[in-house]
Design brief:
- By secondary structure, the chain is mainly alpha-helical.
- Helix content is about 75%, strand content about 0%.
- The longest helix has 26 residues.
- The protein is elongated, with a radius of gyration of 27 Å.
Length: about 220
């Protein structure tokens, strides 16, 4: 793959002469002709030059070398990673963690049954399948995510996806009415125990918590019918 030196130079509004001077400031000798050869691929920069370019452009060395994911391919890569991770089975820590978090998010959004009615092929090839996954995980398909993942490898992308889904799960759980109410009742129960520490106040607090669980259990059973 062709390197990104020319692309980054133009993005930063540098001429080849400007870049030559900037490299000289880093203790690297490269005249305008040398810069042209680097950009065309006629000459390969030394590791010292790669490091100097990385510092000047403030990007990873691999990115300048042209390695890693391309910006335009990242949306489809995210989609395929979501789908393949959910429907396939591999023995890998990152893969397994991501798979579980995808499942939990589907459950949280109450669409796991829809996901399970599909498969990897229909999800990747049909408009309905692709739209389903993009809508449910819309927070992954943002330009800022593409920018962060640009030039990185697939493992990095998987880890980033996993981190973002975990953040959403934590926020969803913390905003959940059941969790919020339970925390209040649990705090009340422990306050009764620590402050009063007698059965006349502790037992009613326990009964209140039990009643709440029973109420929520009934609500779930009604939703399942």
């Amino acid at each position: 793959m062709k390197n990104r030196i020319k692309e980054l130079r133009k993005k930063n509004s540098y001429t080849q002469e400007d870049l030559s001077k900037l490299l000289k400031n880093e203790g690297i000798s490269a005249n305008r002709t040398t810069i042209y050869r680097y950009e065309s691929g006629a000459r390969v920069p030394s590791e010292k030059t790669w490091k100097g370019l990385a510092k000047i452009f403030d990007v990873p060395i691999n990115y300048i070398k042209g390695n890693g994911l391309q910006y335009d391919e990242i949306p489809s890569k995210i989609l395929s990673e979501l789908i393949n991770t959910y429907y396939d089975d591999f023995e890998d820590i990152v893969f397994t963690t991501l798979k579980n978090n995808i499942k939990y998010w589907l459950i949280t959004k109450e669409v796991k049954k829809i996901a399970d009615s599909l498969d990897s092929k229909s999800s990747l090839t049909t408009d309905y399948g692709k739209l389903f996954w993009k809508n449910v995980f819309s927070f992954l398909f943002k330009p800022n995510i593409f920018k962060i993942a640009e030039g990185q490898n697939t493992i990095y992308l998987q880890c980033k996806m996993n981190s973002l889904i975990e953040q959403k799960l934590k926020k969803e759980i913390s905003n959940n009415k059941f969790v919020h109410n339970f925390r209040e009742k649990d705090a009340k129960l422990m306050q009764q125990f620590y402050n009063c520490n007698n059965k006349y106040t502790f037992i009613p607090a326990i009964d209140d918590l039990i009643n709440y669980f029973q109420y929520y259990k009934t609500q779930i059973q009604r939703e399942q019918k």
